[in-house]
């Protein structure tokens, strides 16, 4: 974990606003998009980050170098549950490090369940994120937007929703198992996923479901219709831990599509 952190910091040594002569407004534009009200009575919207040409931002699991977007909704009004749909990201290789994210634009669909049905919903808060090109810059941008209940279907939101990873059923996943074994620093995890290829060299990402746990970059290989991936899980605090396999989220990123798998069974 410390090696990963120091490497990422070395790559992003310019992770300060002084690394870029202009301000954040010259790099990123933030918009809140309206998508109207669903038949369930929820509001559809999206956070859109439009980046300057050639810049990229990051996915929720950004890889070896990068920081994931974090959204603070605490100042919002009449907002209950918030459900975020992450479009399938791209894999970038830079200076020997792998990062995962989006280039030029990120549209992040959100579905809002209001606390009080029929009353207006106001989204107000802040997005913290990182952007990189030749240098890396951290950013914070505020948003304040009252969602329009009469808005029509938004093509940008629809396009982002269409880019979501496939479900297990859609991807033809037959089974997903995880084998655990102890290491000097934590646990080694080996996943075996019975599924057709997602296309090209497949990248697999482990997300343990516990913010205190970190997963190293997975090594993947195929045996026919079985994708095999190994990674090491480490506790950020350095202590021992137990892993709940049902909370393990596995994402397979391929050239044809991505696949989202929640939970794996013992093998």
From TrEMBL:
Pfam families reported for this sequence = DsbD_N (PF11412)
Q: Which residues form the Thiol:disulfide interchange protein DsbD N-terminal domain?
A: 43-140
Q: Which UniProt keywords apply?
A: Signal
InterPro entries registered for this protein in UniProt: DsbDN
Leader peptide range in chain numbering: 1-21
- What protein does this entry describe? Thiol:disulfide interchange protein DsbD N-terminal domain-containing protein
Q: Which organism is it from?
A: Falsiruegeria litorea
């Amino acid at each position: 974990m410390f090696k990963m952190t120091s490497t990422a910091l070395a790559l992003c040594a310019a992770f300060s606003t002084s690394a870029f002569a202009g301000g954040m407004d010259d790099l990123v534009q933030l918009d809140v998009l309206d998508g109207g009200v669903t038949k369930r009575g929820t509001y559809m919207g999206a956070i859109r980050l439009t980046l300057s040409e050639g810049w990229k931002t990051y996915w929720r699991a950004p890889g070896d170098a990068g920081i994931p977007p974090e959204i603070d909704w605490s100042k919002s009004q009449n907002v209950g549950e918030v459900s975020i749909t992450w479009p399938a990201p791209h894999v970038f290789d830079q200076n020997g490090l792998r990062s995962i994210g989006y280039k030029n634009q990120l549209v992040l669909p959100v579905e809002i369940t209001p606390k009080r049905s029929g009353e207006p919903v106001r989204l107000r808060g802040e997005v913290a994120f990182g952007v990189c090109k030749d240098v890396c810059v951290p950013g914070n941008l505020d948003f304040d937007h009252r969602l329009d209940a009469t808005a029509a279907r938004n093509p940008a939101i629809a396009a982002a929703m269409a880019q979501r990873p496939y479900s297990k059923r859609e991807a033809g996943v037959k089974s997903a198992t995880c084998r655990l074994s102890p290491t000097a620093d934590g646990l080694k995890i080996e996943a075996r996923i019975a599924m057709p290829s997602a296309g090209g060299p497949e990248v697999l990402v482990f997300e343990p479901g516990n913010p205190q746990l970190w997963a190293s970059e997975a090594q993947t290989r195929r045996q026919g219709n079985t994708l095999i991936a190994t990674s090491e899980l480490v506790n950020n605090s350095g202590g021992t831990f137990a892993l709940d396999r049902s909370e393990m989220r596995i994402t397979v990123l391929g050239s044809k599509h991505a696949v989202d798998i929640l939970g794996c069974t013992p093998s």
